[in-house]
Design brief:
By secondary structure, this protein is mainly alpha-helical. It has one domain. Helices cover 79% and strands 0% of the residues. It is built from two helices and no strands. The longest helix has 26 residues.
Length: 52
């Protein structure tokens, strides 16, 4: 897995999660967003292989 893509997705999703005030404190929201970004970056190669 490309570490650059992993970090990029984590940062983008983490920053976007700050817009969701119902998830709690900003650090919690950033952590949730970063986890979603990591999962997305990790699953992207698998999804590409299944589709092609």
């Amino acid at each position: 897995m490309d570490m650059t893509a992993l970090v990029f997705y984590a940062c983008i999703c983490g920053c976007l999660s700050l817009a969701g005030p119902r998830l709690g404190a900003p650090f919690v929201r950033f952590g949730i967003g970063a986890a979603v970004g990591i999962a997305a970056a990790a699953l992207l190669p698998v999804i590409r292989q299944v589709m092609y």
